[in-house]
Amino acid sequence: MPETASIVMPSLVPLYPLREIVAFPFMIFPLFLNGDELADFEELLDREQYVALVRARGEALPGQLPPLCQVGTLCKVDQITRLPEGGGKVLLEGVVRVQVLEVSRAGRTLHARCEPIHEFVEKSLVSDALVQSLNALLKIALSYGRPLPDDVMKMIDLIDNPARLADLVALYVSLSLDEQQQLLETIDPLERLKKVYMHLTAEVQRLQVKGEVQAEVTKRVGKSQKEFLLREQMKQIQEELGEDDSRSAEMIDLRRKIDAAGMPVEVRRIADKELKRLERINPASPEYTVSRTYLDYLAGMPWRVATQDNNDINQAETVLDEDHYDLQKVKERILEYLAVRTLRERMKGPILCFVGPPGVGKTSLGKSIARALGRKFIRMSLGGMRDEAEIRGHRRTYIGALPGRIIQEIYRCGTNNPVFMLDEVDKIGLDFRGDPASALLEVLDPEQNNSFTDHYLDVPFDLSNVMFITTANLLDPVPSALKDRMEVLSLAGYTDEEKEKIAVRYLIPKEVEENGLAQTPPDFTAAAIYKIISDHTREAGVRNLQRNIASVCRKVAKELTQGKPHRETIAPETVDEFLGPRKFFNEVAAERDRVGVVTGLAWTETGGDIIFVEATRMTGKRELILTGSLGEVMKESARAALSFVRANCAEWGIDEQLFESSDIHIHVPAGAIPKDGPSAGITMVTAIVSLLSGRAARRDVAMTGEISLTGRVLAIGGLKEKVLAARRAGVRTVLAPARNRENLEDIPIDVQNELEFIFVEDVREALAAALQ
Ligand SMILES: Nc1ncnc2c1ncn2[C@@H]1O[C@H](COP(=O)(O)OP(=O)(O)OP(=O)(O)O)[C@@H](O)[C@H]1O
Predict the structure, then answer these.
(1) Complex ipTM, two decimals?
(2) Is the C-beta atom of 327 inside 6 A of ligand 1?
(3) For labelling, which of 187, 289, 713, 727 has a CA lying 20 to 30 Å from the CA of 331?
(4) Is 722 known to be catalytic?
């Protein structure tokens, strides 16, 4: 590169106006010219080696000089290359700044009288600091992505002349043509260096902001792209590690399931997060199974799957009638319930609760409701449930944790609006592991169950479309908070006649079909059915009746396959033959009347039953002994009975002294079965009076009623069940509280006709009727 000091300027130099660039000293640059321009340029040079390149701020007006700047750069022409497509490339090298003193035109060429601008730089602390700062700043710009060729960077490192450094760096800072020209015109090198420094600082700031914006944009826009890339990379890593494709296939499958599950947004977010976690877990670790099972549950829950309801009430009525005999009141109430549900889209209505002894059709009514509505049916027993987690599930932090039974059943059934029958709400327990009843309340309460949160699932699931129905054998033990939310429908039990009809219309066809006898159905005679009912079953419902019919059918099937003659008719003798000796006897009819033994009527889980209250007396010290698994209430009613008899003993000719010298023992046999309730009061009074007065009690008179200390007889519950039990046991007369007279209408007419009913207000009336 020529040194500026060595240049001897000719008096006139060719001048070439530049429009698109500003030429700087030390700059090596090409100038591309078309054919005409090249011809002009060559004419201009006319064997000269130097040319002054000066910026023109616009086109020349005809006959005038172009508007030229005052400062330009004297350049050396290194090479002219003609290009094949026409025109050419002139390679130039900046030598020195020149001040243009005068311009002259000769034809199409310009010449100028110029003066070189010599720069003298004295090195100083300021110039050193500026050079260093500029160097450092350049490196920062470089780190922000400002492109700078390696050799230029090296060159910059070597230059310690501020004037040259300023000119060189100026070439690599983004500047407008005007800014470049200004720099060219700044003669003081330190001043120029400062300006370059300012421009570079501004550029670094721009780069920094641009970098931040870009990073933000990349973060947002590129997230999915990044995920894609990462996933691809992971796939490659897995392949290299030899992990087979089945895992990625499993993930794809799981993702597809999650996509198809129709989860609410919040749940979807959790599922996606869990899936990402799963992808990172080693499939051999137990954690993998835990996470996988959880995702299976999330994806498998019927978030949006529901069956279409059939709202045709007439059709529902037909289904209920098809499946069940009688039960008019209950069916009527069910239909009303369904009708209201149809009219009101989202009924926050009561939960139906079927109460009654086993085998009266509670479960099968639930099934029929599901069939009528076209919904799926789930049945779940709450009996003996003590742990809240059985309903609400365990948190996933527990090893082997699973959702509660409610969510499990919904998951299994695959729709979010099944008919869900919760059996035995009266048997639900409570202990240190929590209160399942309160968890159940959350499930059943229409106010809260649209966001039921199972501990395992840990996200809310809407149970408000589920139709819950509960069943219980007895209503009393049902927790009152639950009772409040339920509408109770009682199913009391059947008379023998009803049972016979149920057998003929429903149970026998069902069992015949079940046992493969549809082609050759045996004909059960009415007498045979009655025989099964009275000799082989003692129940309020028809469960055992169905079992015995099934047993008969199996035996017929066995004979048929053994090639024995086909039994076309099942007569009472056939029943004897197939089912063996009778299992139940008419205790009451068979027994003789005794002193101190009285027939009572009790209401138990299995319906009504007869009990015997026995009283006996020993010499002693006025002690009352009570045995037979009696509950507290029953014990109290025994004490009240004794007090009443003692207070009024003269009425029945009993010596008061007898109480002073006696211990009285009251026992209620079937001692293993717990008994409770106040309704045996009247029976206890009768047993004590019978014992102490020596008058035998009529065995075929059965009684029920609570007593007050004055002898008033108070109302009791479950009269229908008790009456049916009395009839089964062969009782002829039923003594009941006068206040229960209205319940008589629940009792079938044929039963009413068969039994004598005595409604009493005072226990004395009962004594008169029962004692001989
Ligand atoms: N009124 C009826 N008409 C026709 N079949 C009946 C009737 N009542 C009961 N059944 C039949 O008796 C059988 C037992 O009934 P189900 O299982 O519904 O009793 P449940 O009351 O639910 O007993 P549990 O309390 O033990 O669950 C079923 O096969 C049912 O179809």
Answers:
(1) 0.95
(2) yes
(3) 727
(4) yes
